[in-house]
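Sequence in, structure out. Go.
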Amino acid sequence: MKDTLRTRQEVQTKNCWDLTPLFSSQKDWETLYKKLESRIQEYEQFRDQIHGSFETFKNCLDFDHEMARNLEKIYTYAHLKNDEDKTNAAADDLFQRAVNLYTRMSDAASFIIPQIQAIPKKTMDLFLTNKSISDYHFYLEKIIRNIPHTRNAEVEQVIAMAGESLGASRQIFGQLDNADLDFGNIIDPQETSRPLSHGNFTLLLSDTNRDFRRKVFAQYYGVYESHKHTIAATLSSSVKKDLFVARVKQFNESRQAALFKDNVEILVYDNLISRVNENLRPLHAYLDFRKKVLNLGELHIYDTYVPLMGDVKFHMDYEEAVTTCIAALAPLGEDYCKTLEQGMRQGWVDRYENKGKRSGAYSSGCYDSPPYILMNYEEKSINSLFTLIHEAGHSMHSYYSKKHQPYASHDYTIFVAEVASTLNENLLGQYLLKKYEDDPIMKAYVLNREIENIRATFFRQTMFAEFEKCIHELAAQNKALTLETLTGEYKKLLERYFGDHMVIDEALCLECLRIPHFYSSFYVYKYATGISAALAIAKRIQTLGQTAVDDYLAFLKLGGSMFPIDQLKTAGVDMSAAEPIMETINYFKHQINTLDTLWNTHLKP
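Output:
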């Protein structure tokens, strides 16, 4: 028997996202594309003019934001079509054209920010008193704040012109990882030939047959072994690109440049890493517990995905998953749940894996589209259920943001985005634990999954964040980022985070080469801070009820109208302090102790 992936054409329409709210046809996309292309030259009417009068200043802001809003429609449609099937040449053409248009528009508009920053303070203060530009206040505040890191118009134009080339490393890795790497098929314990892919890698690693898990791990990483030099060069190039842009923008290093945008202090990043490194004992205790339950002499990474309750067979089709998500999110209110359910059932979600489809999952959209969700949903994986509710958190954040904020301030940062998604995951965990309160096996299964989620989202992402800090610092010191350097530094972290509690297979050192988020530098730490904030908000909802829910919904409605640390204070959480990090570690420890007690009381053979 052979199980093969469906082509895109074989996927039923009901299982695909509905892109018609963006464009009813590709012809409409082409029409808007040509319109934008023809209007690029209109930027010139504002060059060296925006300081002259308030009317010209406002007209420039309005024109630029109108162009940007339409460009987002063009880009969103193109990247969603491209992600449906990376082997589709026509979709790739749309995407490349959208990227090219973005670069040309960025080039044409590159003078605007430097010239806004050159407006005398007295003039700008006077402009800001006019209520007709109140929607632009935070946008302008951020521009003014960036004055020390904005070059003259000529330099900014060169940076904009280089945008497409500077993004090459990420684009090359994406094409290689999603379109060209072939992981082949693998024979499972039932003698069925199954495709091995990004989408089902962790599912296959959850199989109870250890020899099969080992084989899956070896075959998957064997493909990266065959391409390790190329991918190492691509990652190295991406890191050097970040350093180049940071230095051009007059930052001391890449991390400072990345955190400056969100007004996040370096201390927040360093506190996360130091607190986790000082408190690895609960992680080690969990690894030891896992080894004990599985009755293993030694633990390998491919032993960390298999459910500890091996006789539990999870199966939930997509429609039931939606019903479960809505029930779990009931504490957030009827309006929240009604909107989400309608979207999840009627066109927001591209549900299942197909040949060439982008791996993983995400929520994406623009101001004029639904908040779409890309999934590779697996009915036999509880991870897919959690992933679905995770991405739903992003989408509802986008929904509330667009509903309550003008275009200029609707776009929230990733720092706060991960709060909405991980809060949803926590509410799902609470719901399932109550549902299975009298079923010790299923309760242990859900506890295990929640513990694994914290391990992956908090501890693992912090390790990734430390790796990023390390390799960017090496680049700043003019050290070569060779394959040996990258994998060597990663191995040191693996040994420190897992100690003697897990065997570090040599192939696992290649893991640093397969993480797409490393091409969006200093992104992954936000998963760890996000889950910490989410757990703190969940605790507030449990203890304060509707007051905490109202605070949380008010936070979602802020969009991008404040800096993220300030936004979270609206939700009742201070991420500039160490308390949320320590509370997450203590919660992780508590859940492990609960699982250990449950095991010893009801489940131990």
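Check: The radius of gyration is 24 Å. The first helix runs from residue 26 to 39.
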